[in-house]
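User: Please work through this fold.
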Amino acid sequence: MAVTVETLEKLERKITLTLPVGVIQSEVESRLRKLARTVKMDGFRPGKVPMNVVAQRYGYSVHYEVMNDKVGEAFSTAANEAQLRVAGQPRITENEASPEGQMAFDAVFEVFPEVKIGDLSTAEVEKISTEVTEEAIDKTVDILRKQRRSFAQRAQDAAAQDTDRVTVDFEGKIDGEPFAGGKAEAFQFIVGDGQMLKEFENAVRGMKSGESKTFPLAFPADYHGKDVAGKTADFLVTLKKVEAAHLPEVDDALAKSLGIAEATVAGLRADIRKNLEREVKYRLLARNKQVVMDALLSKAELDLPKSSVQGELERMVEGARADLKQRGIKDADKAPIPEDMFRPQAERRVRLGLVVAELVHSNGLQAKPEQIKAHIDELAASYEKPADVVRWYYSDNRRMAEVEAVVIENNVTDFVLSKAKVSDKSISFDELMGQN
């Protein structure tokens, strides 16, 4: 087999493969003979179908399979001999200029790029930190109390105010015409919680049971209901019932109702602190990792394989379709999703994957078994039965691969931070939790 390798552009290469016609024909005949021993055809006993009949029925498909197999083998052998790191699948076409007794094919493909990583000591990284304060714990306690609030009907002449639960009938019309979703009976919401549009809450606030009111409501231009977005409706609302909220006291009974092992206020606050500190740790890690990866990319030079970007685009489009399907969108698999909307993200993922792989390879940053175990143990610690969670991870290769990828990213993050110019910045708990 003769092999030639050409550079077409940047990462694109071409290999010309030649295969003896006799090898192809010999393999086709061998497979047809094997097929003839088991094939079933009307009018013939099994294993007694004449070869010319088998060849007529199956010859084309067997020839196609043999060509695919032999050309694939030839390409793999040629790429290995030339020590090429192939990215994606080759595009193979038959070459008409074949030597006598030979079949020639052109395989056009991409190779993975050379990745050059500059001096990381000149990279600048802002590393953030935060503390879980007593105020943050107080706010979480208030949220837990709200989740367990009860409601009691207020007096007939009591005006609805913030934190009250109201029951209303309403109907909205635009230019005198009703619209979808504009009418409800015995509808409940908490005043001041932001569940309803501001104008609606403002209209109901101060009303008493039995009262009715008409008011205009302007829907925002970006309102989720596209039929009414940007339009103004006239609403008639009738207040049926006003209920005052009652929040449970912060006491041992609250701690017990929340299933806290040490059913005391101190135990509750300690449990909240532990959970918040775990959440803070993961948020800080994710945010600092993102900044580190940005700094790493700024120091890297490489060409992107188009095939790798295309593969990532297709995965992201499929992911978007699966998301639409999960939300119950009809014909989600046919929804027009333009690839270009994902292109910047796909290119970043491919670039980052190649740069991280190079850094890991050249600096020995692979995930060690003890690191993987420590990470799984940490993930499992927040569950009631950690041992079951550990077994759940170790029983699935895909889940283990995901853990390994996270550990490698952590190793890369630590490595870059050890080399880069790091400036520390402390931010508030609320600022961290408000970030996406």
Summary: Residues 265-298 form the longest helix (34 residues).
